[in-house]
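quick one if you have a minute, typing this from the bus. theres a chain ive been looking at and ive put its sequence and its fold in token form underneath. please have a look and point out which stretches look like helix strand or loop to you. anything you notice is useful, everything is just below.

***
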Amino acid sequence: MNIYDFAVLDHQNQEVLLKDFQNKVILIVNTAENDPLFPERYEKLTELYQKYHQQGLEIIDIPCQEFTPDDVENIRTAQHVFPKMQISAVNGNYELPLYTFLKTNRGFAGFGNDELAHKMEVLAAHNDPDYKATPDIKWNFTTFIIDRQGDIFARFEPNYSFSDLENIVKMLLASN
């Protein structure tokens, strides 16, 4: 089983079969436009998409309101360059089956050691004191990197380095 076995609904409630993205490098990202990380993260993702889309990069934007619930109107009116899906749950009883699969196969491994990592740890602990023990998505902009075969290559937490992400994207695009 891989991500090609799943479908999601786009922002117009149309089914999107992930098998239609075969032989692409895919970033699956939960976003929220009211998140303080949004302006920088979304701009960088847009740049990455524009730079590598012709070589086979796809970004699937899955808006999520679990961490910043007051941004629903912003999500519906924002301009998007890459495919935007329907607002969806990424944790809990109503999470997308795709996210159940992603989290089961690539659990949470920590935030790292930078300054933002410490802030993310404090925030995650406030929301869930046992956050380290679960594979749940901890915040917006958690990114799953999918290789050309539809397998999960990596999971990046929201404080990831865009240069690290770009290097992995380039490596996966170069492999056939």
Q: What stands out?
A: The helical segments are 38-52, 72-77, 97-105, 115-127, 162-174. Strands lie at 7-9, 15-17, 25-31, 57-63, 143-146, 152-156. The chain has a mean pLDDT of 90.
